[in-house]
Amino acid sequence: MINKRLGDILEFQRGFDLPSQKRIKGSYPIISSSGITDYHNEWKLNNENVITGRYGTIGEIFYYNGKCWALNTTLFVKDFKDNYIKYIYYLLKIVLKKEYGDNKSAVPGVNRNDLHDLIIPYINNNNLQKEIVKPLIAIDNKINLNNTINAELEHLAKTLYNYWFFQFDFPNAKGKPFRASGGKMEYSDVLKREIPKGWEVKRIKDICRIKSGYPFSSESYVNKGKYRLVTIKNVQEDGVNLNVDSFIDVIPENMLDYCLLQPGDILMSLTGNVGRIGLMYDDNCLLNQRVAVIKPFSDDVNEYCYFLLKNEYIRSTIDNLASGSSQANLSPIDTENILLPFNLNVVNNFNAKVSPIVQQIVAFKRENKELIELRDFLLPLLMNGQVRVNNTIKNDHK
Description:
Strand order of the largest sheet: 2-8-5-6
Low-confidence stretches: 391-398
Helix content: 25-40%
Oligomer: single chain
Strand content: 15-25%
Distance between the termini: 11 Å
CATH architecture of the largest domain: Alpha-Beta Complex
């Protein structure tokens, strides 16, 4: 292991401008300083990419293999200089954690030239680089597998929701698709479309409440405390990311009923890319303002509320309700007044089917949390040579 200037190992480049008003929904992820925060119909980078934030969330490292757009709030590795890309990814995790530590949220910005001038410990052996990061890759592969399974489970449940509550092909008394089997429909003057005969028209607020978080002041933040503070940037397009910058020690007493989050709670973003929905999977977290928690009036409709709010029609309706010139803002009151067809028996049947799916999703998210903790424990030990993986590595060190 030798000490070397970071700029001799790799080259950073600033990400690309893409104002929100110029974004067109597509399949290519937009990676900001907080990770994947949106999707666009064009891309700037391809293949294996290593990206870090230069403004906003400082010090986080993101690996993405495929076409994506690195936003102007990031730096991406333009040239890996023949190093093993995954080694560079894990090396930067160590370098930036050491450089910014727990004070990364207070850093106003990162200059790529300053990063290039850092002197860091480095292994100049491509084969050894691959061996060192093997255990880390194995853990990350398991995390990615869990995420893939979760995505498939969500897709399955979302498809079921669409069949039952938009196409109205929920099972009838004989187990046949209701509408496709000739079930009776009637026109709703309120919704301006046909719904199953006998169904009610309800507002979202008749089923659940949408409660905005508490306006914690920056004076309340501590570097490390009992409670993690979940802010707007933690609710991303692919769910809730609990890698937070701010912590709180004391909960406001009048906010205990919703400010203290629980695994399985549903969160919604109210600012920026409004209407993003995610599931909580850990405890000891507090909800900040401009993020809302969904509080169903009954546990029997919890999973229904989750997939209701993730439905594309509802998301589109929410987008139209948002206001604001510089960035979109969503009113919980306006959202609660969205109208929808409702039948409690069908909702209960849906909940019974998808509840095990949601429980499995939360379980995989919790497992990923434990895997991330294990990976982050091993990361410095492996990268600094304190732990050796196998005999091959030992021989290479001799």
